[in-house]
Amino acid sequence: MPDPIFENSRLVALYDVLDGVRDDLVPYLAILDEFGARRVVDIGCGTGTFAVQLAARGVDVTAVDPAVASVRAAMAKPGAHRVRWVHGLVLHLAPLDADAATMTGNVAQAITDPEQWAATLRASHHLLRPGGHLIVETRRPSDRGWTRWNRADTYCRTSIPGEGLVESWVDLLDVDEPLVSFRWTFRFQRDDTVLTSDSTLRFRDLDEMTADLASAGYTIADTRDAPDRPGREDVYLAKKPS
C-alpha cells in the first residue's frame, strides 16, 4: 500500500508546495533529450509534475502510480490531458515499445521487497523497445543521508493555500541497513490536526544495483552523479539490448 503522504488527500495537497521548484527534474529532461526519447513511461509518477513537463514538450507519456490520491491530483494539473494516466503498478502495463522509462525521486528506493523490485525491473524492460533506456535515481548508502533526517534539520513552517500555516518535519525511526524507516509529521495550525506518514526506503549500492539491473536483462550504459545532490545520489542509465 502507498504511504499516507501519497494517499491521504489532505497530505497530497501539500506535496507540490513543500517540494517547491523541482530543479531536480531538469537533468532527466536533458537525459531524455540526449536519448531522443519520444515515448516515455514515468514509473511512480506521484502528483505528475515530471509527466506534465514531458508532455508539454511533445513527448508521448504514460504515467503510472499505485496511489490513487496522487494520480487524481496529477490529473487535475494544467496540461494533464496530454498524459496517459494509470492507477496501478508498472507490472499491469502492456508493452508500449517505449524509448525510455524513468524512476525519479524515491521511487526505486520505496520498492523495498526484493521480489517486487525484481518484478518491477523486468516489467520496465518489457515496456521498452530494443535499445530503450531505464533511468533510475537512488541515494548512495555511503552518504548515510538518514543522519540528516531529524527535526532540527527538516523542520519548516509553510503557508499552504486553503490550509494556512503547516508545520512539518522528519524523525528517523529505524536503521537496519539496507532498510531505513522514518516518519513525516504535519501539524495543521488551522484546526490543530496532526497527521503522520511512515516510510521505509532501501539503500542499494553500486554492486547491488548493477546485479539487479543485469538480472532484469539490462546493461549499464552509464552511471552519473545526480547534479542537484553531488556525492549523495547516483543516476543509473540502463539499456535494453538492441
Describe the structure.
The structure is a single chain. This protein has helices at 4-7, 9-19, 26-35, 49-56, 68-75, 107-110, 114-127, 151-154, 206-215; strands spanning 39-43, 60-65, 84-87, 98-103, 128-139, 156-160, 164-176, 179-188, 193-202, 219-225, 233-239. It is an alpha/beta fold. The strands form two sheets. Strands 3-2-1-4-5-11-10 form a seven-stranded mixed β-sheet, with helices on both faces. Strands 6-7-8-9 form a four-stranded antiparallel β-sheet. Helix 5 links the parallel strand 2 (60-65) and strand 3 (84-87).
Can you tag this structure with a few keywords?
242 residues; alpha/beta; seven-stranded mixed sheet; 30% helix
- Share of helical residues: 25-40%
Mean pLDDT: 96
Query: What is the 3D form?
Result: globular
Strand order of the largest sheet: 3-2-1-4-5-11-10
- Major sheet size, sense and barrel closure: 7 strands, mixed
Strand content: 35-45%
Helix-strand layout with pairing:
Layout: H1 4-7, H2 9-19, H3 26-35, E1 39-43, H4 49-56, E2 60-65, H5 68-75, E3 84-87, E4 98-103, H6 107-110, H7 114-127, E5 128-139, H8 151-154, E6 156-160, E7 164-176, E8 179-188, E9 193-202, H9 206-215, E10 219-225, E11 233-239
Parallel strand pairs: 1-2, 1-4, 2-3, 4-5
Antiparallel strand pairs: 5-11, 6-7, 7-8, 8-9, 10-11
Offer a quick outline of the entry.
The protein is of the alpha/beta class and 242 residues long.
